[in-house]
Amino acid sequence: MSELAILTKAMIQERKDIAIAIVGGFIAGIAGVSLFSASGYLISQTVFAPPLYTLIVLTSLVKILGLLRAASRYAERLYSHRATFSMLSRLRTSFFAKLIPLTPGILGRNRSGGLLARIVGDVESLQHYFLRVAYPPVIVVMVFLATVIFTSVFSIWIACLFVLGMLITAFVVPGIVLLGQRRRQGRVREKRAELSTEVAEMLYGYRDLKVYGQMKKREQLLQDASAALAAEQEAAARHLLRGQSLHAFVAYLISWGVLVLGAVFIMNGSLAGVFLAMLVMASLTVFEEAAPMATLPAYKQDSEHAANRLAETVLDADRRQPQPSGALSTDKAVSVELCGVSFQYEDECRPALKGITLSIPPGSKTAIVGPSGSGKSTLIDLLLKLRVPTSGLIRLNDISVQELNEASIWQASNVVLQHSHFFRGTIRDNLLLDEESYTDEELAAVLEKALLPNKSLDDPVYEKGENLSDGEKQRLALARVMLRKGRLWLLDEPTSSLDYVTEQRVLSHLLTEAADDTLLLICHRLTGLEKMDRIVVLDQGRVVEAGTYTELMEQKGYFYEMKLIERQMIDEA
Amino acid sequence: MKKKSSLLSEQMSAQRKRLILLGFTSLALGAAITVQAVLLAEAVERIFVQRSSLASVAGILGALIGVMAARTLLSYGNGRIGLQMASSAKTSMRAAVLRKLSNASMPMSLRGQTGGKVSVALDAVDEADSYFSQYMPRMMEAAVIPVLILIMVFAQHLNSGLIMLATAPFIPIFMILVGLQTKNKSEEKFAQLAEFSGTFLDSLQGLVSLKLFGRAHLQQQAIERSSLGYRDATMGILRIAFTNTFMLESIVMLSIGIVALELALQLLVFKSLSFQTAFLILLLVPEFYSLLKNTGTAFHSGRTSMGAIRKVEELLAERSETEASLTNWQDGGENMDKTQQTEQMDPADTPGFADRSSIRMPPIIELRDVRFRYAPDSFELAVGSISFGAGEQIAIVGKSGSGKTTLLHLLAGLLKPTSGEVLVNGRPRWQMDEALWFDQVSYITQHPYIFAGTLAENIAIGASREVSRGEMVEAAKAAGLAVVADELELGYDTPVGEGGRGLSGGEKQRLALARAFLKRPAVILFDEPTVGLDLHTERVLQRSIAELAGSATMITVAHRLYTIRHADRILYMDDGVLLDSGSHEELLARLPQYAEMVNAQRKGGFA
């Protein structure tokens, strides 16, 4: 089971806790069986009116066993849970490490949120694997074997019956349950996903559904999907319940068999009658210890499914080529060259970029404009080697990107993505994403330049920067990038949420900072472009026009018309 | 358990029959358990003490296996009933949630948190499962069977019965103690867990930023640190819980030990007890305690379920105070006098409503002192009274947040005014059939929703009737979508939306236009796109809107000067108030804010 290899590795790393837990579980199980067997023996002994001291010894033994059982159960629980949580922490860390090289490659254009949330959930659900799947059979088999050895002293045949019981309850019954379980769980998941999508669709499309009179129909559809889901869930749960009942019945049957065999052997004199009650009690108890086996299939399915999906996600991580050693120098401004570059997202059926050929001289300032979805942001991903072109060649400083170490490209670039990410912490934490050190004065000066003078370095930032307005986020991202020493500036709509005046001021600070460097600016507004050396117009993944502002305006082409439409827009801000 | 929520008691009363059935099967199960013990003790007595022949115990052994089978079946039956209860409770709760969501309201669906609502409809309802499938059957069993066992033991031997009766209360007492001690702390931890998995998600989402800034590996260490910190904190709580369980199990074990000791003393010293009775009691004692212990786990899952049920309840109760102001069209009917009701029931009497062909005429829409607010203390929209003539072209302008879209929703009938009325051809619109009204309205938004389905299906949704392929293709052509379809391998049958091919912003806009072309509405409500459309879409948009508007009353939230200039009338909204209305020239002359908005164009230098 290669999917579970990561889990197994994590388990091996927690072997000490696991060993203690197993010993604890074993002692608890044995103590339980012994306790009830001893009670049965004790009661039987009284028939022969033994001396009182044997009785006192036996009853003390029963109590000691009881306490031993409770205590070792305590240790078992403590250590098994500790091991589980430690493993979980290992798994999280190792998945994070594996995802680092894969992002954003595995993310489609729009579906990143769902995938990431799923990864988090899948990792969480792996915690059941150890506690409920891997661990119980070990304990059950050990306790059974000990009981078998004990009973074999009295009767080989009864011991054999126990072996049979163990095989059936620990392997055959869970196996039978698992057989049907896979299909049923699959159907439940399918129906659940269906309903979830439908509900989300209804909420997102509420307005359109209402206006187009589709709401009634849609609600009916949802009610049907909900009923179907409940039916599937019930069927799956019933299947599991049948397994549990089967387990219980097998346990009764074996105890009954012990009774019958015992009777036969007592009749023919090969077993002393005094042991009968003890053996019956032992068999009743040992199956109780095996109870977790009945719920095992449910958890096994769930955690295997989660492990499978995770394994699929990170499959490529192990196959990845090592990064080449080529480094992008930060001594001089970077030159950028694209030759017939095309790119297609895996989940889309037409290319996002088609045969882009562009040459950007070092130190030049280029604006990239175009309607949304024209491929502007994809271009930046390609330059940063976050994604690899489907065809064509990209060269930075005349070195092919394929020969450059990705980390060195990032080191040499000052990047503002369209949606900058902020982490829980302070403004300072979020500024110093790189490891260089600055004095507080320098940092405050940068905040000033980014027109964030009202923010102090120790102001808190919530998860995803939720306490910052869109404009503040953008200015903070700009402050962050101004602290970097790269020579290639890649800015993706860095000022889209700012008002015109602020935008112009921030941009002019930015242009001063980047005076000696190469700069690529993706703009959603067509203002202030007169200052740029060149404007590249993209539409549907193609370069439709390029030139200076004056050239393009005189050409009266695509850019000119876009400009006309923009002039038609009344000021909203 | 805390006081039962009303939703829960509602569910329980709907399940009364099954509950009674559960009571009976539990009773039967209890009987099976006791009879099994009796038979087992009898068999051992005969074999061991009386040395009877195998043939003489055959009957007992046969009966024993029968009882064992019955016990298995009864306990399976209890489980089945629980599952059925869970299944129907979930279906009915989910149905209520879905009804609420689909009938509810524009504000509810607008107020974001779509994920949260989907999670209530799915996760919370699913979590409620164990209340019915686990908690109820276990509680019923724990309420019935131990009593039965106790009666049996008392009948056999008073002292053992007394010991059991005296020790039994310790189990629930300890359960409650465990609960009280860990409850607060664990709730605190749950919050921390949520926060923690939030951090993990946060780190994953920010991974690209972290990579670019060379911090990914530092974050990895941070994850490990906080993960281990979380483990230690959780273990702190679990340790308390486990210690309590340890105490609990010790009590159970000691109680069994005491019973065993007492039995032995009675047997040996006082000779007042037979082996058979003693063995029977010894068989029943563990059953007794394990049933009581089971309630502990059931109690725990029951409490989790209760929390989930409360979440469902909250959603169902949400915003019921403004429910009245929502689009529940027929609600107003209660206030109508008799004559109006008759009229409503017989729309044929009402000119303009009955005949579908006349509906296609652009109606006169009138607002009469309309006010609206989302919640009692929120921003209020006050439009006052205004009337739109048939076929008039109206533009709504104003700063963002001034209430333009809310006004459009009010006009569309997606929101119902808090006070005042919207009249259509002189009659209150809530008296109209909702379907009939929406049948003549198109609402073209900036972000039209694309449903999972083919391109053709997405266009066809525009018409409330069956449309032919030809009609659909015509509409697509008119909206400039034909080029897109031609480019696709499967043409109009290409799956789009969720799980399908993504459409660009411009294509979505054209799809919305195609829906409108198919519908040919009498009223068009149009939220003009602000940015980011390609030139092709822009051209299609202007041409199509002009064409559609030819035969309709058109109300646009306008962002383009072109649209404003061509409007018959412009409504200027400011902070929820309709400040003024008039033609472009009139407003330029008398409303400085308007002039400023139109002229203060930062683009500068536009002649």
Structure report:
- The complex is a heterodimer of chains A (573) and B (607).
- Chain A has 573 residues and is an alpha/beta fold.
- Chain A has two domains: 3-319, ABC transporter type 1, transmembrane domain (ABC transporter transmembrane region fold), CATH 1.20.1560; 336-420 and 485-572, Rossmann fold (3-Layer(aba) Sandwich), CATH 3.40.50.
- Chain A is 62% helix and 10% strand.
- Chain A has helices spanning 5-13, 15-46, 52-102, 112-125, 127-152, 156-204, 206-211, 215-267, 276-289, 292-319, 376-383, 406-411, 427-431, 440-449, 470-482, 500-513, 549-555, 558-568; strands at residues 336-343, 353-360, 365-369, 391-396, 399-400, 413-416, 425-426, 460-461, 488-492, 518-522, 534-539, 542-547.
- In chain A, the strands form three sheets. Chain A has a six-stranded mixed sheet, sandwiched between helices. A four-stranded antiparallel sheet of chain A has the order 2-1-4-5, covered by helices on one side.
- In chain A, helix 2 (15-46) runs antiparallel to helix 9.
- With 607 residues, chain B is an alpha/beta fold.
- Chain B has three domains: 2-317, ABC transporter transmembrane region fold (Up-down Bundle); 362-440 and 521-607, P-loop containing nucleotide triphosphate hydrolases (Rossmann fold), CATH 3.40.50.300; 450-519, P-loop containing nucleotide triphosphate hydrolases (Rossmann fold).
- Helix content of chain B is 64%, strand content 10%.
- Chain B contains 23 helices and twelve strands.
- Chain B has helices spanning 6-14, 16-49, 54-103, 106-110, 114-127, 129-156, 158-167, 170-205, 207-212, 216-270, 275-317, 338-345, 356-359, 404-412, 434-438, 455-460, 469-478, 482-487, 505-519, 535-549, 561-566, 584-590, 592-599; strands at 365-373, 380-388, 393-398, 419-424, 427-428, 441-444, 453-454, 495-496, 523-527, 553-557, 569-574, 577-582.
- Chain B has a six-stranded mixed sheet with strand order 6-9-10-3-11-12, with helices on both faces. In chain B, strands 2-1-4-5 form a four-stranded antiparallel sheet, with helices on one face. A two-stranded antiparallel ribbon of chain B has the order 7-8.
- In chain B, a hairpin with a 6-residue loop joins strand 1 and strand 2.
- The radius of gyration of chain B is 36 Å and the shape is elongated.
- Chain B starts with 5 loop residues before the first helix and ends in an 8-residue tail after the last helix.
- In chain B, 46% of the residues are buried.
- Residues 320-358 and 602-607 of chain B have low confidence and may be disordered.
- Chain A: Pfam families: ABC_membrane, ABC_tran.
